[in-house]
Amino acid sequence: MDYLRQTAPRPSMSDAEIEAHFFETYRPSSLIARMIEADEIAAMVALLASPLGAASNGAAVRVEGGTFRSIL
After folding, report:
1. Measured between alpha carbons, how far is 5 from 66 in angstroms, rounded to an integer?
2. Nearest 5 degrees, angle CA 42-CA 43-CA 44?
3. How far is CA 15 from the centre of its chain?
4. pLDDT tens track, the chain, 72 positions
5. Side-chain half-sphere of 59: how many Cα atoms within 13 Å?
6. For residue 17, what are the CA distances in angstroms to 1, 50, 65?
7. Are residues 35 and 20 in contact, defined by beta-carbon separation less than 8 angstroms?
C-alpha cells in the first residue's frame, strides 16, 4: 500500500480511495480493479502443485487479476 500512497493526488485519501484511483488512472484494463491478496497467489500455487494441476505442463501462469491484455 505504501507504493500506492505515492500515487495519491491527495494525502487525506483513504486506502480504498487510493486503490480505486490507482486502478482508474494507471490500470484501467484490470479485470478485478483491486490489488490481489497473498492467499490468492497461494491458492494458485497449491492448485498447480496438487494432483488437480497434473495436466499443467510448464505453461506460464499469471496471477495478476487480468491487468495484461495479452500473455505475449
Report:
1. 22
2. 90
3. 16
4. 788 888 899 989 999 999 999 999 988 888 899 999 999 999 999 999 999 988 888 778 888 877 766 656
5. 11
6. 12, 37, 19
7. no
| Separation of alpha carbons 59 and 45, rounded Å | 13
- Separation between Cα atoms, residue 19 and residue 27, nearest integer Å: 10
Closest CA relative to residue 31, chosen from 19, 23, 39: 23
| Cell numbers found for residue 14 | 483513504
Per-residue DSSP letters for 11-70? TT--HHHHHHHHHHHT-TT-SS-SPPPHHHHHHHHHHHHSGGGTT--S-----SSS--S-
Contact 5, 18 (CB under 8 A): yes
- Residues in the chain, total: 72
